[in-house]
Amino acid sequence: MYDYIIVGFGIAGFSFAQQLEENNRNFIVFDNQSQQSTRIAGGMFNPIILKRFTPAWQAAEMLPYALLQFQKAELKYKKKYIHYIDIYRKLASIEEQNNWIVASDKPVMRDFMQPISKEKIEGIEAPFGFGVLKGTGIVNAGNLLDDVIKNLQKKDKIKQETFDYEALEIHQEFVSYKGIKARKIIFSEGYGMLNNPFFKQLPLMGTKGEMLMIETQTDIPYIVKSNVFMAPNVMQKGQFYIGATYNWEDKTNTPTPEAKTHLEMKLKQLFAKDYSVISQKAGIRPTVKDRRPLVGTLKKHPNVGILNGMGTRGVILAPSTAKFLFKHMEFGMELPKEIDIRRFED
Ligand SMILES: Cc1cc2nc3c(=O)[nH]c(=O)nc-3n(C[C@H](O)[C@H](O)[C@H](O)COP(=O)(O)OP(=O)(O)OC[C@H]3O[C@@H](n4cnc5c(N)ncnc54)[C@H](O)[C@@H]3O)c2cc1C
What we know:
single chain, D-Amino Acid Oxidase, Chain A, domain 2, 8-stranded mixed sheet, globular, binds flavin-adenine dinucleotide
């Protein structure tokens, strides 16, 4: 008998598996790669909202634990997944300069926000300078998932197939699925949750995001942000992610010509050098009505859990919320109210 079945292996499923390994619980994973959010994401970690210069919910608090967990993966797989890269937020006016100065004096913010820089960046016109953020960067989550999945395959701990919800039997002390028994099961299917009869009533909205990968001769060692992000591809010098779009209507993983046009239009406003687009990718962010993660268990069946709703910040949120869920399911520790799915019950 396994301790857990994990359904869905993006950054949420991975983070929960990491908790299980650290606590000597055994598990088996089901994943069908129907959702792409973790794999196509930029993987940026940045606890500051760059539109308004305000802290993102719990992000500065959760970031150290997230980095610790990804560091442990680096040690285990002897690879570098965390890349610290400063963010250069292009400032658009004197008013924005003032807002930056005021915000960067506040607690939490001052740990990340640096003085305004007038540094010249090739191809980028910035008469009002850049607000610089330190302690930020990119986690190469796609690369990490590939390594973890290879390792799970070797140990025969992953089934790369669609989980059939109808075949799940839930008992008081265990669950059983096509001959596999486990004490508990958790679902972390990202936007795929809407096919899950146990949790599909939760208000997961889903926001499609598209990104371009471009190639250019210019070397920019920062993540530059204006009305798009231009972030270096940590695997390939001279390549940059350009993103991302937000679409609340289309729920497919198919790249669209409209998004390409839109991103290129914004890119041209930011970057004046030649480039070529080498690929385009799309995924659905598991966003929630109240913008908080979805964590908890079924009221009737405390051995059936969910870890979802990472929204636009999976890198920062997944490790801490996985720890909360593990402690809740194993030791009955209460979940923070903001993330507990009970908030949606009458
Ligand atoms: C364009 C874009 C850019 C982004 N940029 C960033 C960023 O810079 N930083 C950041 O922190 N976040 C970013 N995000 C958000 C981030 O990607 C998500 O918060 C995070 O990846 C969600 O992870 P997840 O594990 O919950 O879901 P997913 O990554 O979607 O994983 C869910 C997994 O479950 C599997 N699955 C679903 N149903 C089933 C089933 N029935 N049977 C078996 N398997 C199933 C899917 O195939 C998938 O592998 C971005 C997202 C997008 C789309």
